[in-house]
Amino acid sequence: MIEVHDLTKKYAELYAIHKIELKLERGDVFGFIGPNGAGKTTTMRILATLLNPTWGEAYVGGYSIYTKPKEIRRIIGYMPDFFGVYDNMKVIEYLEFFAAAYRIKGPQRRKICEEVLELVDLGYKRDELVTSLSRGMTQRLGLARVLLHDPQVLLLDEPASGLDPRARIEIRGLLKELRNMGKTIMVSSHILPELADICNKIGIIERGELIVNANVDEVMRQVRQQTVLQINVAGDQEAAARLLEEHEICEQVEMGEDGLRVTLVAGDHDPSVLAKLLVENGHALTRLNEEEINLETAFMTLTKGITS
Asked: Whole-model pTM?
């Protein structure tokens, strides 16, 4: 659905994005991660045909950004990080105005507006003025607006930016629902945990260059160099720690309030041998699990914190 080759945008001597390569299939949810100023918005604006690249090519739904911009706009929904609303309109009037711009006519227009309001859980606000909406509700209204024409591709630029924790959870739930509807979604964020359980692919951009572009599992494997275990025993933690330190597959054993953190030497090891060791030496094992790496850890490992 999205294919990008050598995409570059240059301002004088500054590269906003540099030689981006990207391919997304139908139904992919792509988390576009990077610090502010890294090039996320520039990339999305080019894909939305709102900005011309300096060179390179991009296709959305098989259409070139150079020769078929109108066709691209018919199949995408682009939600910028900041967008204006018409304050003197009611919520339902706001959506009907944009539905008319999409040339949705007659009774079908009202029906579609009501449906997208229910989808984003704003049906109870249909007759309220747009000015009465909270920041989170305004974001959901903006998402409803880009869904009116049932786009195949969604370009969402920081949809959770500036929201409180509850509103972020609501937006995340809505994105999961859109994923289940089979939409191809590119969603940018610098709030990393927001994307962890939504996306099947992630790209990490830094200083205009896409330094990581892979499935989420592949990125985690790339970051994970060694296995780290969380172990708890009932009773003497210090004795358990000393026992583990003597085992050949344990490189480091750290004691903390939550139990033992055990780093294994590099290689493929079976953690069950440690469980057996502890039990055979009289320690009641209450927990043994592998420490997970999240997107935030991956981001900090793979980037240097540099922006353009």
From this structure: 0.76
